[in-house]
Specification:
Structural class of chain A: mainly alpha
Number of strands of chain B: 0
Largest interface: A-B, 27 and 34 residues
Distance between the termini of chain A: 53 Å
Order of helices and strands of chain B: HHHHHHH
Oligomer: heterodimer
Distance between the termini of chain B: 31 Å
Order of helices and strands of chain A: HH
Number of domains of chain A: 1
Number of helices of chain B: 7
Shape of chain A: rod-shaped
Radius of gyration of chain B: 20 Å
Strand content of chain B: under 5%
Number of strands of chain A: 0
Strand content of chain A: under 5%
Shape of chain B: globular
Structural class of chain B: mainly alpha
Number of domains of chain B: 1
Helix content of chain B: over 70%
Helix content of chain A: over 70%
Radius of gyration of chain A: 21 Å
Number of helices of chain A: 2
Chain lengths: 54, 230
C-alpha cells in the first residue's frame, strides 16, 4: 500500500497532478451549479414581482 | 431548453460513471510504463485536459461562427458558457504537463513551440472572457468576442502541428495519427476512457452554463420592463 502511494518515488508529482485536476474539475462543477441556482432564483423573484437588490 | 433539461440528468450520471471507471483504470488497473514508470499516470489527466483545451476552443469558435452568420443569441450564449471551461482545462494541461515535465525532462517549463502555443491559447481564452466583461451591451459584446474568438482559432493548427513543424521537447502525436495510435492498449484504454469522461463533463457543464446564461438574459429583460413601468 505504502509502495503504491509512493508512485515509484514520484508521489509528489503524480498526486499533485491528480489533486489539482480534482480541485479544478470539482470547482467548475460547484461554480456552474451554484450559478444556475442563483439565476433561477433571480428569475423566480422577478416573475413573482418582488424587488431584487441587483 | 426543454430538451437539455431532459437530457441533463442522464448525461450527468453517464459522466460520473465514465469518470469513475477512468480514474480506476488510470490509477489502479493500468500498469506502469516500461520507461516512465508510475509518472505515466499523469498522462491520463494531462492529455484529456489538453484535448479539451483545443477541442473546447474549436467548439467555441464554431459556436461563434454560427452566432455571427445566423445571428442566434443561443450560439453566443453557449460560446460564452464554454470559455471558462476551456480556460480551466488549458490551465490544467499546462500545470499537469509541467508536473510531468519536471521528472521526465528535468524542467517544469521550456519555451518549446507546443508549450508556448498552448500558453498563448490560455491567454486568448482569458482575453475572450475579459472582453465579455468590459462591453455591456449583449449584441456588441457578442460580436466583438466572436471576432476575437475566430481570430484566435488560427492558433489551433499551430498547436496541433507545433510538434511537427519545430524541434520540440514535447513528443509528437501518438493517438490521433494517420497510421493509428502507437500505444499499447493497456495504456490507450484508460486514456480514451478518461478523454471520453472529460469530454462528457465539458458537454454537461456547457449545457448547464448555457441555460444559466439564458436565465440571466431573461432576468435582465424582466428588470428592463420593470424599470420601464416604474
Amino acid at each position: 500500500m505504502a509502495e503504491y502511494f509512493a508512485m515509484g518515488g514520484y508521489a509528489g508529482f503524480v498526486w499533485s497532478a491528480y489533486g489539482l485536476t480534482a480541485l479544478v474539475v470539482g470547482g467548475l462543477i460547484v461554480w456552474s451549479i451554484r450559478g444556475q441556482a442563483q439565476a433561477k432564483a433571480r428569475v423566480a423573484a422577478l416573475e413573482a414581482g418582488r424587488a431584487t437588490d441587483e | 431548453m426543454a430538451l437539455s433539461g431532459a437530457v441533463l440528468p442522464w448525461a450527468s450520471a453517464a459522466t460520473a460513471v465514465v469518470l469513475a471507471v477512468g480514474v480506476y483504470l488510470a490509477l489502479i488497473a493500468s500498469p506502469p510504463d516500461y520507461q516512465q514508470g508510475e509518472t505515466v499516470r499523469m498522462m491520463y489527466v494531462h492529455v484529456p485536459s489538453a484535448w479539451l483545451a483545443s477541442a473546447g476552443y474549436g467548439a467555441m469558435a464554431l459556436s461563434c461562427a454560427v452566432g455571427l452568420i445566423w445571428r442566434h443569441p443561443l450560439a453566443f450564449a453557449s460560446a460564452k458558457a464554454m470559455a471558462p471551461l476551456g480556460a480551466a482545462f488549458t490551465f490544467l494541461a499546462l500545470v499537469t504537463g509541467s508536473l510531468w515535465g519536471k521528472p521526465m525532462w528535468g524542467a517544469y517549463w521550456v519555451w518549446d513551440a507546443r508549450l508556448t502555443s498552448v500558453l498563448v491559447l490560455f491567454f486568448i481564452y482569458i482575453g475572450y472572457i475579459a472582453l465579455w466583461e468590459v462591453i455591456e451591451d449583449f449584441g456588441r459584446a457578442a460580436r466583438a468576442t466572436s471576432i476575437l474568438c475566430l481570430a484566435g482559432a488560427a492558433n489551433l493548427p499551430v498547436i496541433r502541428f507545433s510538434v511537427d513543424w519545430w524541434n520540440t521537447l514535447h513528443q509528437p502525436a501518438s493517438v490521433a495519427r494517420m497510421d493509428g495510435p502507437t500505444m499499447h492498449s493497456s495504456i490507450l484504454t484508460p486514456l480514451l476512457v478518461m478523454a471520453v469522461g472529460f469530454t462528457l463533463l465539458f458537454v454537461v457543464l456547457t449545457l448547464v452554463r448555457t441555460r444559466t446564461e439564458i436565465m440571466q438574459r431573461r432576468a435582465r429583460a424582466l428588470e428592463m420592463t420593470r424599470a420601464g413601468l416604474a
